[in-house]
Amino acid sequence: MRKKSIEVEGKTTVEAIKKALKILTVTKDQVDIKILCEESKGLFGMEGGKLAKVKVTLK
Fold first, then answer.
1. Residue 7: exposed, middle, or buried by beta-carbon count in 10 A (0-12, 13-18, 19+)?
2. Global pTM value
């Protein structure tokens, strides 16, 4: 049986993790979290930065 996992993006890694936990309706201690991509700001903090992306897998 394959573990259930989802990939979620957010403005920050914390936001992405919170979104994933809400979608799966679980708490942080019930999942494994892998950060796929850290957020990055655009030039001088302007738009154009990259979103953070995390993979959350049920234990």
1. middle
2. 0.84
- Write the pLDDT tens digit of every residue in 3-14: 799 999 999 999
CA dist 3 and 38 (Å) reads: 24
1 has a pLDDT exceeding 60: no
Asked whether 32 and 59 are in contact (CB, 8 A), the reply is yes
User: In the numeric block, which tokens belong to residue 4?
Assistant: 């259930």
Contact 31, 59 (CB under 8 A): yes
Backbone angles phi, psi at 14, to 5 degrees: -60, -45
Hey, where are the domains in the chain? Answer: 5-58
